[in-house]
Amino acid sequence: MTTVSPTPETTPVTAPLTAPQQTAGQSPPPSMRLRELAFGAACAAAVRAAARLGVADALGETPASAAELALSVDAEPAPLRRLMRALCCYGIFSETPDGKFTHSEMSRLLREDDPHSLRYIALWCTEPWTWEVWPRLDDAVRSGTSVFPETFGKGFFDYLHQDAGESAQIFNRAMTTSSVQSAQDVADLLDLTGVTSVVDIGGGQGHVLASLLEKHASVRGTLLDLPGVVARADARLRDGGSLADRVRIVPGDCREDIPVEADLYIIKNILEWDDESTRRTLRNVVSAARSGARVVIIENLVDDTPSMRFTTAMDLLLLLNVGGAKHTRESLVSRMSEAGLRVGQIHPVNAYLHAFECLVP
Questions:
Q1: Which of 107, 272, 282, 287 falls 20 to 30 Å from 48 in CA-CA distance?
Q2: Which residues pair with 225 in a beta bridge?
């Protein structure tokens, strides 16, 4: 066994750290696994610290020591090495036999320049307000309602935009990142044969709509979302943009009215509020659409096995901050049927999204 003598910037190393240290094929005993889960906040905090420090951006293709990385990210070498050691246990970075660090598949996702970057998603899921509401999960489970107003004195979005400007910016970056990354998956999935007009309901900045219009040159589109949201629409859709002549931007609240008639309506990741808001939105679609129009609803599902750990966690966070919930297949089909939609096939979009094909009778 090789060792490295302690220095001011290192602690003793007995072996390189990669994934959790168990014999191949062996799982930790339940008592250890529960201890690890109880300390889950340490893992989330380590991911957040790495993202805020920019360690993944500082580490290139050449292995680097903690001391070398510390110079790049303005940190102390010894505690940075401790942080890296913890991250290596989860497969986020790897350690070489001589005590230097290299990228892993997951650590690259913390780089801001990675096309599949999750840096802002990681920051969003660990923003300061999250550490105040998670400990009150038992209260939310007892009451079935959000704990946010009682904790912060106002609703979630009011707090975000009035009192937590940096967090609001992180939220916007995270939602943009997520939308951009899934937009092409949606465009690749959807068959627009016979479709001449599409409306993206609650479509945010319109990344999905832009991807569809770029792929289908004969289709015209409408982006519908709240005024403050569509004001930041994708540059391709705004005046002077490459798609502007085929787009109408409509400020509005889909829970109140959907003043658009189209061949195809897309609803992506917005049916996670309270049940009444979801029902109103779906009813508004049916009221606005002509008979035979297609409605494609795209959502994360809590009963989707490959992404259940992620989606059930998001489901609990929705309960805490806005009193919302993620859907199961059954609950979403039930809401769509109640609204009068005729539900057809369900297609996977990617590892964590499903598209429900519906028709307006």
A1: 272
A2: 251
Smallest CA-to-CA distance from 20 within 39, 4, 5, 33 is with 33
pLDDT of residue 1: 32
- The pLDDT of residue 25 is 55
Give the model's pLDDT for residue 15. Answer: 46
| Rounded CA separation 44/317 (Å) | 14
DSSP assignments along 162-217, one per residue: HH-HHHHHHHHHHHHHHHHHHHHHHHHH---TT--EEEEET-TT-HHHHHHHHH-T
Question: What is the total residue count of the chain?
Answer: 361
The two three-digit tokens of residue 263, written as one number: 């061949």
Burial (Cβ within 10 Å: 0-12, 13-18, ≥19) of residue 361: exposed
Decide if 263 contacts 240 (C-beta within 8 A). no
User: For residue 323, which of 274, 360, 356 has the smallest C-alpha distance?
Assistant: 274
Please report the pLDDT score of residue 10 as a whole number.
41
The torsion angles phi and psi of 298, rounded to 5 degrees, stand at -120, 125
